[in-house]
Amino acid sequence: MITRRALLAGAAASAVAPLEAAEPVTLASAAKRAGLIFGASIDDSAFNDPAYLDLYRRETQMLVTDVALKFDWLRPERDIWNFGPADRIVAAAKASGKLVRGHTLIWNDNAPAWLKRLSGREIERVFDEHIERVVARYAGALHSWDVVNEPFWPMDRKPGGWRDGPWYAAMGPAYVERAFRRAAAVDPKTKLTLNEAQCDNDGDWGRSIRPLLRGLVDQLLDKGVPLQAVGLQSHLQSEFPRNYPEFARYIEGFGAKGLEVYLSEFDVNDKAFPDPVEGRDAAVAALASDFLASALSVPAVKLVVTWQLSDRYSWYRELARKRMIGLGRLPRPLPFDEEFRPKPLYRAMVGAFEARRPPK
């Protein structure tokens, strides 16, 4: 029998017991409940800005090397290996219990001048050496690697729509298979990704790349090449044609082949939207909502990565400062503004994550 004294003691204890605090909603927590991983690219700007680094700690599950592992940044000269920035990212992720994604081992763009001066045979040796040394350094530390980035660029007018550059010039299309096999031989446990741009674009540009990427994926899988995921950058362009349900049907095809799909560099270029910030931010959020509603309906989509977190550090800002995209205003393509305050895009992303049913 419960005595009056015990009842009163229990009531008193209940009155003073602290209520369990609800977990604050973040991009990371909303994504996790949706069966997704949310990450963002990061570079030294975050390590020089404590408030920005705190934003990564709070909002992300994954850190993605932005420029730190791109060939030209990592190897400005043949005998210089600048691993410091990438090592900082990996150490920061480990300290905060986050995943790391490597971007990118092989890309035909932005090759340093010293590489372009080599013979084809020397380029092959550098290719193999580079993959083996870099993959070995981070073996076991990464969730996934962008092994080859943007293999196609029809504007280069190469047969098959291939992007031109030193790797392609030395080895032809075979460089892709060679890269995946070498990376897997060094680190067989990390997920290996083929990353491509513009497939979300429903204009001629995107439509020309989609079948090329699908064909390359089929060739690699038919040959037994170790490929686990396809990355689709998803730098949404407000001025380009779009048909996001059609894009979702396209990426469903990769899922049917047993591959994971990563929305690997997500942001929204607001170039075509009106100048006033309030209306522009609303338009960015609406465009992102439409895209994510379609893309996240595909169970194979496992990862969403924004390219940086704050407008202050967006690559579009850097382009605007260099007057390369002709804007008389600063772009606002990311979920947080210059002061790291959440924007309508942030709420759109959280809403899209919350609306997704986790794959069973």
Written description of the protein model:
- This protein has helices spanning 4-16, 27-33, 44-47, 50-59, 71-74, 84-95, 113-116, 120-137, 166-171, 174-186, 204-222, 244-256, 277-295, 315-321, 344-355, and strands at 37-42, 62-65, 99-107, 144-149, 191-196, 229-232, 235-237, 260-269, 301-306.
- The protein has 360 residues and is of the alpha/beta class.
- The chain starts with a helix and ends in a 5-residue tail after the last helix.
Summarize the structure.
The chain is an alpha/beta fold and 360 residues long. It contains 15 helices and 9 strands. Strand 7, helix 12 and strand 8 form a beta-alpha-beta unit.
- Gap between N and C termini: 47 Å
Strand content: 15-25%
Shape: globular
Instruction: Characterize the largest beta sheet: strand count, sense, and whether it forms a barrel.
Output: 8 strands, parallel, barrel
Q: What is the radius of gyration computed over CA atoms, rounded to a whole number of angstroms?
A: 23 Å
State the low-pLDDT regions, or none: 1-20
Query: What does the average pLDDT come to?
Result: 93
Q: Which descriptors apply to this entry?
A:
alpha/beta; globular; 360 residues; 15% strand
